[in-house]
Amino acid sequence: MPPTVSRWTGKEARALRESKRVSQVEFAAELGVSERMIVRWEKGNVTPRPINQQGLDTVLAACSSDVQARFAEMISLTGRASSTQDPGVSSEQPASPEPEPDVPVGDEDQARHPIDGKLMTLVPAGVYFAGENSEPVYLPAFYIDVFPTTNADYARFVTATDHKPPQHWENGQIPEGLENHPVVFVTWHDAQAYAQWSAKTLPSAQQWEKAARGTRGEIYPWGNQRTPAKVNCREGGKRSTTPVDCYASGVRPYNVYDMCGNTWDWCSTESEPGRYELKGSAFTSPFLRCAPSTFNDASADMHDDDTGFRCVTPAETMRALLNVRGQPTPT
């Protein structure tokens, strides 16, 4: 019978990590928390929250019998009951009055931006593996739009600023039935103007890639499997954009949609004077171009039927905006 833990503390969490023979970075990625959180557990500064208790249960249950045996032996050597708690350590709260910024990714990390109303999700601070060579890169925490900017989103911007609408909007109106499709035929300058209006920025290529790949260095948002059915790419035969919430099976690890396929996203990263990086591939792209690490760029004046954008904002800026507007601030 596999071992069970009535209540996880840092000692059990460390025993499980060491039984699996993985680093704190690898263990954090498996649980969907920050490396800093693992360090705090193991130091005894904070005990895992209920959602992380469940995650630890799931990881333990999925371990091989050899790992479970090592874990059971390590726990028995600690000479303590797993259901007890270290004195002086608060359950679910840090020992200091400092608010806990490192929380698992989930609905509690989502908020609507108070200016353009788009749903955004937190990408926590930390290291991720960037590019085709998976080089470790540290990024501060930021929020990113869950969905690409849609025609409906862009129409609100056009109305508010009198910005020129995309060329395929007849009489300045969204084509029928495309309200929830990503806006296209926008230049980098158009995307930048929207970002400035909404008090956001275009993502850097590194921010975009981390939001797509997470911290494990996997090839695609959903893992390393070549699965064209999870995205709107050339192999799917759609030959046009699809609604931004269409491909839920391709969503991971931060619940951000269309990080592969549908439309390319403009980034703020300048590849050379007057040219900016594009990420994500499009319905026109073969699946082999869909990996988020793939490099692409274009002139800032380029506009096509397969190019759109989404925005980001630093975590501190987002929280300040929500506080000013009197909206609940994600913890």
Question: Can you put this structure into words, describing what you see?
Answer:
With 331 residues, this protein is of the alpha+beta class. The protein contains nine helices and ten strands. It has helices spanning 10-20, 24-31, 35-43, 50-62, 65-78, 151-161, 188-197, 205-213, 315-324; strands at 110-112, 119-123, 126-130, 135-139, 142-145, 264-272, 275-279, 297-299, 307-308, 312-314. A four-stranded antiparallel β-sheet has the order 1-2-5-10. A hairpin with a 4-residue loop joins strand 3 (126-130) and strand 4 (135-139). Helix 1 packs across helix 3, helix 1 runs antiparallel to helix 5 and helix 2 packs across helix 3 (35-43). The chain is elongated, with a radius of gyration of 22 Å. It starts with 9 loop residues before the first helix and ends in a 7-residue tail after the last helix. Residues 79-106 have low confidence and may be disordered. InterPro entries: Cro/C1-type_HTH, CTDL_fold, Lambda_DNA-bd_dom_sf, Sulfatase_Mod_Factor_Kinase, SUMF_dom, SUMF_sf. Residues 99-108 have a biased composition (Acidic residues).
